[in-house]
Amino acid sequence: MSSELEDLYQEVILDHSRRPRNFGELPDAAVRVHGDNPSCGDEIHLAVKFGPEGNVADLKFTGHGCAISQASASMLTTKVKGKERTEAISLLRAFRSLIMEEQNEPPGSLGDLRLLAGVRKFPQRVKCALLPCRAIEQALEQTTSESSVSTESEA
Ligand code: ZN
Prior knowledge:
- It is a single chain.
- This protein is about 40% helix and about 20% strand.
- It is α+β, with helices and mostly antiparallel strands.
- It has one domain (about 5-150): Alpha-Beta Complex (Sufe protein. Chain: A).
- It has a four-stranded mixed sheet with strand order 3-2-1-4, covered by helices on one side.
- The longest helix is centred in the last third of the chain and has 19 residues, at about 125-140.
- The radius of gyration is 14 Å and the shape is globular.
- The relative contact order is 0.22.
- The mean pLDDT is about 90.
- Zinc ion (ZN) binds near residues 37, 65 and 68.
């Protein structure tokens, strides 16, 4: 591995990709989103359950993909779980900017997610990191119970 790639696959990221948090089925989910990233072959099935106040009560994912997509899904679901909907949406926006734009001081609210900023140097990996983000955003916005997103429809 080049040193750049070593930077990218830091211990925390590797740990999340090997033992993804929130991986599994959520039988009583209110919303399901299927996301795919054909350029890498990553796939995510995301299920979200909302609390009485509309907060993200629980979310889980299944699917398969590269280390970055799995780590991103694991880290994002961990971060978003329990949050108010508006809080979750602003966190996802902050994550998206982190992955796509050079930033001197990424918001501290992102926590460990900041470790994924390294993917900016690898355009193919950007889609991998963004796939779970797109899926969660979609789940928070949609009113139907099922839908799908693809990194190929990225504006
Ligand atoms: Zn990937």
